[in-house]
């Protein structure tokens, strides 16, 4: 089998095994340039724990030259120059290490490896048998030490700035003659460890998860693979875990406020070399969306059945059981369980109040929790709804008004919508606005500064406590022309300003000597016409018996037979938009 085939088989072992530390070549003395006739020892360093029981092969310029852990050249020759590699068997092959053997008068010697944080000597060395005089050192063609008797230049705490072209000049004597000689080398500074990167698990990070940050870096092969490193973690520039041996930082039961820019820093124990990772933005996602409390039916009267639903959306990346609880006026009415609804049968006035729901991920009621070992609690979300039981003759139902009073406008135009609950009901109220049954705003007036077509819809407002208005339709157009009409039109339209009056009598039947009371009944629309001033008159057999006034009753004391007849009532209103009088009559009834 040829030597080339042997090398191939060894590389196949590398691919299949891949389990040992990659070796590195070291020189003793630690110079990568020497003179002819000098000795050098090359060692295959695989780490102290793996060195026993291994075979070693040495290569110069890819050709096998020796077997053994250390390769010693007793008296170097120029032919010994080359790129040396060693391989442990089984194991990997080292990176090349360049050795130069010179027979010049002067050489500039530098260490085989130069890493960040090292202390090194650069040596201006003369050929054995000659006598040295003074030496001068340069870096990048600038003098760094002038002529002196010192043949070494010391560099403490190497950094990347140390790299460059170094040169020395030296005067040497041989018998009675002297000469000035020089040599030049390039010094490259290797990374002691790579710039760290930070990673996070899981992906994505969702509230209540355990979040783990890992700081990743790597050391070079031997001889620096055992360098002790310390790692710290930062959030928004502030330290969250000080320097230590752990490469992870964990946050249990993570919450939204744990979002931010995270980074890590790696350093040597002496602090000479420190590197920080780039910042990583971590945005914690909600486990579930903020809840919305829905009630049905929308308008509740005494005796109705009511259902409250606490609605949310669970994050698509998690499958967890959610728990729901319900409250009225801050008091729990249904403890945490998996049912997101609360039902009340045959609702009564005492059921009115401020309802809310909470959502959590815990399996037990929060009030019954006994585990106090965790210093952080699960995030709890709350939604509220103010329920007012609707009773006959209760508060005035609000109405929506537009300013300007047009139910169709152009895009970019401004419109103000006001929730008119009547002058006596406006103080101390909260207002909620809905568009197509979806809540859009809180406040008495909802102002759209620059209308868009997407803001077209049926608007309703609700006073809290109070009722919900009838829908008021707004159309936002981007057409060339629109026909604008008021939101409400009463007199002269098919819509009556007030209902046709009816007449009633008490007592029933009416007996002579009784006090007979006739009542004229009608009703006005919600605001803005609810304050319209009405006048009422009463008639008997077509003749007026009580002229127009504010009273809706006509009374006859000590009634007699001759008071029998056909009675009716009539009403009119003083309209704010015209001076016309509207008379309303009813069918006559015989008493």
Task: Record the SSE blueprint.
Elements (H helix, E strand, L loop, with lengths): L2 H15 L6 E5 L4 E3 L4 E6 L9 E6 L2 E5 L2 E4 L8 E8 L7 E6 L3 E4 L10 E7 L4 E9 L2 E7 L3 E4 L8 E11 L2 E11 L9 E5 L9 E6 L12 E7 L2 E7 L3 E4 L8 E9 L5 E3 L3 E3 L9 E5 L9 E6 L11 E6 L2 E7 L3 E4 L8 E8 L20 E7 L11 E5 L4 E3 L4 E6 L9 E6 L2 E5 L2 E4 L8 E8 L7 E6 L24 E5 L9 E6 L11 E8 L2 E7 L3 E4 L9 E9 L14 E2 L1
Parallel strand pairs: 2-8, 32-38
Antiparallel strand pairs: 1-3, 3-6, 4-5, 4-7, 7-8, 9-10, 10-13, 11-12, 11-14, 14-15, 16-17, 17-20, 18-19, 18-21, 21-22, 21-23, 24-25, 25-28, 26-27, 26-29, 29-30, 31-33, 33-36, 34-35, 34-37, 37-38, 39-40, 40-43, 41-42, 41-44, 44-45
Features:
591 residues, mainly beta, Immunoglobulin-like, 5 domains, five-stranded mixed β-sheet, five-stranded antiparallel β-sheet, 1 helix, rod-shaped
Relative helix content: under 10%
Strand content: over 45%
Number of helices: 1
Look at the helices and sheets and give the structural class: mainly beta
CATH topology of the largest domain: Immunoglobulin-like
Named CATH architecture of the largest domain: Sandwich
**CATH class designation of the largest domain:** Mainly Beta
Q: N- to C-terminal separation? A: 134 Å
State the CATH superfamily name of the largest domain: Immunoglobulins
Low-confidence sequence ranges? 1-19, 363-379, 571-591
What is the global morphology? rod-shaped
Rg over alpha carbons: 48 Å
Beta-strand segment tally: 45
Q: What topology, given as strand order, has the largest sheet?
A: 2-8-7-4-5
